[in-house]
Design a protein that fits this description.
12 strands, five-stranded mixed beta sheet, about 350 residues, alpha+beta
Length: about 350
């Protein structure tokens, strides 16, 4: 049940270039050879806490002046967050930092930091637009990061008994929560350049959960049918017109991950039955919270597995192919990553299981 209130080489060669350091409104050029110390300096700076109200209030009436101000803020803020993740990726336990796919992720963060800081802080509308295009490129470059980290973690666990028994949840929660924030800040700034009715950047002022759920059901059903040849029907109950201020992309991700689990479990548990029992989604709009419950009859989770479901190395499903970009299940990242999305804006995600019957 989910409730909420509201290739290893670096792709661009590091050659002599202009590298700008902002300090007390002054800019000084640094040689690229100074990147290491500069990353370390930024990595220990404090990131700014930003909530949905901040993003919504600032982006309500975007104009060249406010967009330029936002770009200047992001020119300083994004590198801090990137540098913090570089520092973390260099100090992962049990040799995880030395796994090729993890190295490639770290190098991507280093490169993104470099690409932002090699440009001066935007001072004109033209520079702001150029900076926005850069953010869009960087955001796309980091799209497949989750699969790379999952690949690296699985690779380590196949060779190390210590790694298999170690709980990586705390550090990966921190890494992924920062990733959500970075992508949200980038996506919000990019979206403010193309205003849409009912939206403030990527935030929808009246996000209809039923619409997000219908899209997630469509995608999950397609995946389940592809892998198993059939899929259970999904029924909708409760307040189908429920709306609240939220990021639809976040809601879609969480609903899709939960539905993939429910549809797979139901199909596997009833593999010998002629008909599959339905999966049910219930929407509830309370006085203080909004809740979405997904109920299935997929046999539930064994008692010994309940304490492991938030561990990134655990999955109740068979291991997914590494090359699968959108697997039905098996990475082990779906549930913990979904919980991070719900927590990011003050919500929560709970799993209640009845072994032998199903899961809510």
């Amino acid at each position: 049940m989910w409730s909420t209130r509201p290739r290893l080489p670096v792709r661009h060669a590091f050659t002599r270039t202009r590298f700008f350091c902002d300090s007390a409104d002054m800019e000084s050029e640094l040689d690229i050879s100074d990147l290491g110390p500069f990353l370390q300096f930024y990595g220990f700076k404090r990131a700014t806490n930003i909530n949905m109200k901040d993003l919504s209030d600032f982006g309500k009436h975007p104009n060249p002046a406010t967009l330029l101000l936002a770009a200047q803020f992001l020119h300083e803020e994004i590198p801090i967050r990137l540098a913090q993740r570089v520092r973390q990726l260099k100090h992962l336990p049990h040799g995880l930092s030395e796994i090729p796919s993890i190295i490639s992720v770290r190098q991507l963060y280093e490169e993104s930091f470099y690409r932002i800081k090699q440009k001066p802080k935007p001072r004109t509308t033209a520079q702001e637009l150029e900076f926005t295009n850069l953010l869009h490129t960087i955001k796309e470059d980091h799209r497949d990061e989750q699969q790379k980290v999952a690949h690296g973690l699985r690779e380590l666990c196949t060779t190390s008994e210590e790694a298999r028994s170690f709980n990586f949840s705390k550090m990966l929660d921190q890494f992924y929560a920062s990733r959500i924030g970075i992508r949200l800040l980038m996506g919000q700034h990019i979206a403010l350049h193309t205003p849409r009715e009912g939206f403030v950047g990527v935030i929808q002022t009246e996000c209809k959960m039923m619409a997000c759920a219908q899209m997630a059901v469509h995608e999950a059903t397609k995946l389940c049918t592809h892998y198993f040849g059939r899929a259970p029907v999904v029924n909708f109950l409760g307040d189908l017109e429920m709306t609240f201020t939220y990021v639809p992309a976040h809601a879609f991700y969480v609903l899709l991950e939960l539905l993939k689990n429910s549809l797979r479990a139901t199909t596997e548990f009833h593999r010998n039955d002629e008909e599959l029992p339905p999966v049910t989604i219930v929407f509830a709009d309370g006085s203080r919270d909004v809740c979405v419950k997904i109920s299935d009859e997929g046999g539930g989770i064994p008692r010994e597995g309940i304490s492991k479901i938030w561990n990134y190395t655990y999955s109740t499903a068979p291991t997914a192919p590494l090359q699968a970009m959108t697997p039905m299940a098996g990475f082990g990242h779906g549930l913990p990553f979904s919980r991070l999305y719900t927590r990011y804006f003050g919500g929560s995600l709970h799993v209640m299981s009845m072994e032998g019957h199903g899961t809510d």
